[in-house]
Design a protein that fits this description.
about 170 residues; mainly beta; 2 domains; 4-stranded antiparallel sheet; 2 helices; globular
């Protein structure tokens, strides 16, 4: 099995296609027990921590944008950190505690974030579609089931012109 990387995606190459690793190092986003960090592949077998990129302690989720690989999103107890693979800087932070699931849209324009439903605040919109470049909330919903299920209720067209949401049936209660 081969890990995909930001360099391959940013060059528009499918997984398995050779990329000039001197000009565009292969980067891996590693989520460990107590941190999320970036690593780069040097040579054929050496994996080095990429100290040019930030490291996030107590991170619980980490994702590369799937189409271009030009952005990564890291979730910790404070919120969502967005890191540019081009500038090697954190470019955006969204304060949103308790995010339990995160997924990019197919064209990297949006992230869908869901937190656990709070019985003490039943009107809290805990399922949000957020623009990945600005942090603007495009849509938000109350989701009472598992946060991981909430992410799966959205389906996008490849160009993101359409987003469908499967809504739970209203109960008799």
């Amino acid at each position: 099995m081969r890990a995909s990387s930001a360099a391959e995606k940013s060059k528009g190459q499918p997984a398995g296609v050779a990329v000039d690793t001197e000009a565009h190092p292969l980067r891996l986003l590693v989520l460990a027990d107590d941190f999320a960090g970036f690593f780069r592949v040097q040579g054929d077998v050496q994996l080095l921590e990429d100290t040019a990129l930030p490291r996030y302690h107590r991170a619980k989720l980490a994702r590369f944008s799937p189409l271009s690989g030009n952005q990564a999103a890291i979730v910790d107890e404070l919120g969502i950190h967005f890191v540019s693979m081009v500038s090697l800087q954190e470019t955006l932070f969204i304060a949103q505690e308790n995010v339990d699931s995160l997924k990019y849209s197919p064209a990297d324009t949006f992230v869908v974030a869901c937190e656990k439903f709070n019985l003490n605040n039943p009107d809290n919109t805990n399922l949000r579609i957020v623009e990945a470049s600005s942090g603007r909330v495009a849509a938000q919903f109350v989701w009472k089931k598992s946060a991981k299920e909430g992410i799966r209720t959205l389906t996008w067209s490849p160009d993101e012109s359409i987003c469908l949401r499967l809504a739970p049936a209203e109960s008799a209660n």
